[in-house]
Amino acid sequence: MLDKNKEIGNLLREKRKELGYSLEDVKILLKKDFDIDLDNSNISRYENGTVKNMNAAFLRALCKVNKIDYIPIFKDLGYVDPEDNRIFNMTSKDKSQYDKTMDEASLFFNDENVSEEDKQKLLLAMNEMFFMSKQINKDKYAKKSDKDKK
User: Fold this and answer.
1) pTM (two decimals)
2) Is 143 exposed, middle or buried, given 0-12, 13-18 or 19+ CB atoms closer than 10 A?
3) What are 71-88's pLDDT values in tens digits?
């Protein structure tokens, strides 16, 4: 797992440098855009891959600040079901809705009293609920459309 963390950290650092951001810039963007307080040393720990259990909310926010698609990383870390390809087939509208759902859940992921295992379970459950609700809506509008045709 630490090898994956180092790979992810290298990607975060490379993209940050490519974008011309300092650690301080990332810290400011995390606070402004995601209301996440990570100091420079913790951001550096993520970039060095030395964070043992990466916090999903922090990692997602770091990816978004650095303009990295976090979904393949979450899949690689087991934060989303590796067998579930629905997440890769989302439209841009679906992805925007998914991001909003994850934003709203970030408070739970910032709670240090909740174990990383429980956070991962919740994330998997949230993914499933998101796709179930999308399917329910799709079915509902399909039935309505069928009635309109008659």
Assistant:
1) 0.72
2) exposed
3) 888 888 877 777 777 777
